[in-house]
Amino acid sequence: APFPAPRINDCMSWEGCCPPRSNVPPIPFKFPGTSLPMRTRRAAHLVDAAYIAKYRRAYALMRKLPASDPRSLVAQARLHCAYCGAAFTYPKSNYALEIHDGWFFFPWHRMFLYFHERILASLIGDPTFTLPFWNWDNQSPTAPQPKVGAANTMPSYYTSPGDNSNSLWNRNRNRCALPPNTIDLNSGGGCSNSSPRSLRIDNTRLMAVQMRTATTPGLFFGSTYRFGWSGGLGGGNLEGSPHGTVHVFTGNPNAANPFDDMGNLDRAALDPLFYAHHANMDRLWQVWKTAGGRGNRVDISDRDYLNSQFVFYDENKKLVSIKVSDVLDLNKLRYNYQNVPNPWMSASS
Ligand code: C2O
User: Fold this and answer.
1) pLDDT tens digits for 294-318?
2) DSSP state for residue 243 in the 8-state scheme
3) pLDDT tens, 87-124?
4) Nearest CA to ligand 1 atom 3
5) Ligand 1 pocket residue status of 110, Cβ below 6 Å
6) What are residue 87's phi and psi, to 5 degrees?
7) How close is the Cα of 264 to the center of ligand 1, in Å?
8) pTM to 2 decimals?
9) Domains of the chain, first to last
10) Which of 81, 89, 213, 341 would bridge with 17, disulfide CB 3.0–4.6 Å?
11) DSSP-assigned letters across all residues of 142-191
12) What are phi and psi for residue 254, nearest 5 degrees?
């Protein structure tokens, strides 16, 4: 059977992850329609100063909201934590919900980013606002963008200034992940001894292998996971690497909870980089579906998958229930992705 919408007021979490409660039942998701302009999520290393200013303003406002407001960054991070911290149980199942390590990984994070982005847009009163995507899979040795950096580094505006005056800054990050260091898609956390050149080669190889060998929906999305089952049965090709490796690479190995914030699911979504990281994962889903390649590269058509429902708070603090089938077509969600090179596509391995 499909998962019914979790009941947010039944949330129970040892980690303090429960988002604010709702005194009304969720309203079913409605497509935004053409009243919402078509929006393009741009590569984080290609945005301009005007965008960065807006982006910073949006997170500054989000950070100012109290944790009791479901739109606050703390409440957003808690919601993510609740969905992976066994916080949602159901009267008719013996098991709590886990949206990682299985076929809900891609659609659930697409939903989360959709609502998160709508909240940011509404806070700054600009419906055209989009999240950027952190284009870490792009190793093209192009000239770095002035002041921002290359595709495969952390863009400098996340780290400088490195204090609370910068709403994109986060205290808990790996110093070896800061610019101008090259990202390590094979990271086990902490620093790497490899040269930027060999990191680039290894990153491209990893991307090529993970994308090329995902020749079926099962391999790309991960294990079947039906209502009443215990979760965490296995993620798709990309969920461990590069997704998990970027998390653990970005988190601080010397934090009180090693690898905070990005490297721990309970706190990862406190770092604004989380959302740019996941926008790139979301883009790779679209690339996988549309760019060809061997095999059967289509969305899962199983009814239990399509009809499973989750709940999120929207930009008006209203609880909304949304089905997996609602998020398979980006046109209906009114966004797309800037075209960037995917150099791993033509890499030989
Ligand atoms: Cu819900 Cu990148 O994890």
Assistant:
1) 999 999 999 999 999 999 999 999 9
2) I
3) 999 999 999 999 999 999 999 999 999 999 999 999 99
4) 265
5) no
6) -85, -20
7) 9
8) 0.97
9) 8-346 (1.10.1280.10)
10) 81
11) PPPBTTTB-TTS--GGGTSS-STTSTT--S---GGGSTTSPP-TT--SS-
12) -100, 10
Contact predicate 231/95, CB 8 Å: yes
User: Tokens 């990153």 label which residue?
Assistant: 203
For the CA of 281, the nearest atom of ligand 1: 2
Only one residue has tokens 């990984």, namely: 105
Could you tell me how many residues make up the chain? 349
Whether the CB-CB separation of 207 and 185 falls below 8 Å is answered with: yes
Task: State whether the beta carbon of 243 lies less than 6 angstroms from ligand 1.
Answer: yes
**Tokens for 56?**
């910073």
User: Does ligand 1 have an atom closer than 6 angstroms to the CB of 100?
Assistant: yes
C-alpha closest to that of 80 among 320, 324, 312 = 312
Query: For ligand 1, what atom is nearest to the CA of residue 112?
Result: 1
Is 267 near ligand 1, meaning CB less than 6 Å away?
no
